[in-house]
Design goal:
alpha/beta
């Protein structure tokens, strides 16, 4: 784990003290022996994620390294959380305290996160460039459809950029409760709708609400009962042209290391030939990967 210890020894505080960011990305495969590890800052807390169990000796060594570096960086008490995924999955507050509510920032926007609740914390850090793309491309007065909205970070950004309305759709009503809170945190009192619907059973309603200048599709890669990429991306792609206004954009996302960018392009271009490929949005520099095929895929398309 030397690469992780090196990252801890050189980590710095962000210029914006509440900004969430990745500190160490072992998952990218660039640090042999650390492929199971990631370290994130969700200020004022640090989050260590491991995709295989770590024994108590390893956790103690990491804790000592974090404490030593933290003493050099801040007078505030250290707070860090350990999450194990896969075998022995669980989350532990190693040293506290965690704030409640716990609010972090990104590009000036504020988001509610929950490090001790489940595997997803409320803000996917690898999607930062996707949110930047939305902020830069939404025009004042646009309408946006945010599918698989989760905690609605895309909606916050779109409304801040001048969108007239964003329709957020997700099966998980609890995630949309967090989404509402995120809008309130950012003073966005109008313009957002929250629909706890099964997307595949709601096409009529969603189509009638359009057309939209931007449709965002960021589904889970595999979530039984909701979306399975290998089966459902073709079904989703076929619906996109009818949802988009002429000249409108679709931002489509895939986070499945086993499926390359070619899979997503084939799904879109075979099932929605009306859409023209525009660009692949680069991933954040804090998420380097040995292969661009393994990392997050975020593609922009435009309807003729």
């Amino acid at each position: 784990m030397q690469a992780l210890f090196d990252a801890i020894a050189t980590m710095a505080l962000s210029s914006s003290p509440s900004d969430a960011r990745r500190i160490f990305h072992g998952r990218g495969g660039l640090h042999p022996g650390c492929e199971h590890l990631a370290l994130d800052a969700f200020p004022p807390a640090l989050l260590l994620t491991s995709f295989q169990p770590l024994d108590e000796a390893a956790l103690a060594a990491i804790g000592e390294a974090l404490a030593a570096r933290w003493r050099e960086l801040s007078d505030a008490p250290l707070c860090w959380v350990y999450q194990c995924r896969g075998e022995g999955a669980g989350t532990r507050l190693m040293v506290g305290p965690l704030p409640e509510p716990h609010v972090v920032t990104e590009a000036g926007a504020r988001y509610l996160v929950h490090l001790l609740r489940g595997q997803n914390h409320g803000l996917f850090l690898d999607m930062a460039e996707g949110r930047r793309w939305v902020r830069e491309h939404v025009q004042r007065g646009d309408t946006v459809l945010n599918l698989f909205a989760y905690s609605c970070a895309f909606s916050v950004v779109a409304l801040q950029a001048g969108a007239r309305e964003v329709v957020n759709v997700d099966m998980a009503s609890g995630a949309l409760v967090t989404g509402r809170a995120n809008h309130e945190l950012n003073g966005l009192k109008a313009g957002a709708r929250f629909l706890a619907h099964d997307i595949f059973n709601s096409w009529g309603k969603l189509t009638r609400g359009g057309p939209y200048e931007l449709v965002i599709c960021d589904p889970p890669s595999f979530q039984k009962g909701s979306f399975v990429a290998t089966k459902d991306w073709a079904r989703l792609a076929r619906r996109l042209p009818a949802l988009l206004a002429p000249g409108g954009h679709a931002l489509v996302c895939l986070n499945a290391p086993e499926l390359g960018v070619g899979f997503l392009r084939e799904a879109i271009e075979s099932n929605a030939p009306e859409l023209a490929f525009v660009e692949r949005v680069a991933n954040p520099v804090t998420f380097p990967d040995v292969s661009p095929e393994r990392g997050l895929k975020v593609l922009a398309y435009r309807r003729a």
